[in-house]
Amino acid sequence: MSNRILIIGAGYAGMLAATRLERVSEPFTMVNKDPYHYFTTLLHEAAGGRGEPTHYTVQIKDVLRKPTSEVIVDEVTKIDRERRVVVGKSGEYSFDYLIITLGWVPEYFGIEGLKENSLVLRNVDTAAHIRNHIEQQFQAYLSDGDETHLRIVVGGGGLTGIELLGELLDWVPKLCVKYGVNPSLVDLQNVEAMPNILPQVSATLREVAVQTLTERGATLRTNTKIVKAEPGVLHVDGAEPIRAGTIIWTGGVRANPLLAEAGFTVDRRGKAKVNAYLQSVDDERIFIGGDSAWCEDAEGKPVPPTAQAAMQMGKVIGDNVSSHIHGQPMRMLTLKNKGTLASLGPEVGVGDAFGIPVKGVAAGLAKEATKVEYLWELGGLRLVADKTGEVVHI
Ligand SMILES: Cc1cc2nc3c(=O)[nH]c(=O)nc-3n(C[C@H](O)[C@H](O)[C@H](O)COP(=O)(O)OP(=O)(O)OC[C@H]3O[C@@H](n4cnc5c(N)ncnc54)[C@H](O)[C@@H]3O)c2cc1C
């Protein structure tokens, strides 16, 4: 029996699965939308103007360098489990073993008009779009004097929304200098339906985050539910509509819809059910990882949609596919929580690293350290040396 391994999606889970397969010289084909892998966890930096969007990418072929590793740039449009092929816009790719690591898409929770009337932070292109859009709003203000152009609303007070807000708080004053705009006219708001922002961090650190963000000029509107969006307007429950030049939605994620369309057993967020070895419960030769997987940890709690979970899952999948092929025992996912760090701008943050609460500059430095650790994991010293000048500021 042949063992063609196909990986779809070169995110955190896909790249780590691939590097593990390379380690044991297992040939594979990887299909990804772009020729590069991007650092999703740093996209807020790109959107907030800290670095050029291309600084947050690495060419896949610079990481997966073995001649037996084939990389194809194509967008997957269908997973045909019966025919054992993946259909892309430019071709069809057959497999014996399939690794699905297609990540996430925004979840709009059925809120009317939100998809059509908001920007999202999904990849380097959307990060660049947010950045250009905000600059265009400053230019529009200069031409018509309408202060609404200078209001930026970030919907969602989770990690993504708060990290983006922190980054914008740093960038906006620079834009004001560039365009000669009075900084007091700029209004940066975060709108969150729940009573608190950053549910991932402790109450004490959350207070630190609230204080840091509000002192720097942001308005945090918790207990505020978005009910409808129209061009340039967010309607919220129990308050006046918010008119804004920029509306960004970060409030929810769901799995790539291709999984449900392929008939996998999925949860309400479209994630496909896997067992402890990360095999699909519907097919033992299909492994699913990262934000595409519906997976529970040893205590039966759902594995959260985070990069650190995706990376750990990717490694388990790479090892298990190889073990399955060679009739060796597979290993279960035992998730190690390394903590959560939320940056609140280039130099400060809050969170915990391995259970130790950190805030301020220490948290900012700890976040920077995770970037180096990831580059090391992906490509060793060579990649750290290649990218640190561009991405990692230590
Ligand atoms: C701004 C931001 C900050 C974050 N910060 C943190 C953090 O600090 N810590 C943390 O742990 N998590 C963080 N997260 C969450 C984390 O980034 C995700 O959980 C993680 O990216 C999921 O990894 P993945 O491998 O499942 O998918 P992804 O990394 O999303 O990769 C999916 C890949 O599949 C490709 N793809 C998608 N559809 C197709 C298709 N149809 N055809 C071909 N290719 C396709 C994509 O281009 C991409 O390369 C953050 C997320 C955001 C947006």
Automatic annotation (TrEMBL):
The keyword Disulfide bond does not apply. SUPFAM superfamilies: FAD/NAD(P)-binding domain. Its cofactor is FAD. It comes from Alicyclobacillus cycloheptanicus. It comes from the Bacteria. PANTHER family: 64 KDA MITOCHONDRIAL NADH DEHYDROGENASE (EUROFUNG), APOPTOSIS-INDUCING FACTOR 1. Keywords: FAD, Flavoprotein, Oxidoreductase. Residues 4-314 form the FAD/NAD(P)-binding domain. Gene3D superfamilies: 3.50.50.100. This is NADH dehydrogenase. Pfam families: Pyr_redox_2. Belongs to the NADH dehydrogenase family. Transmembrane segments: none annotated.
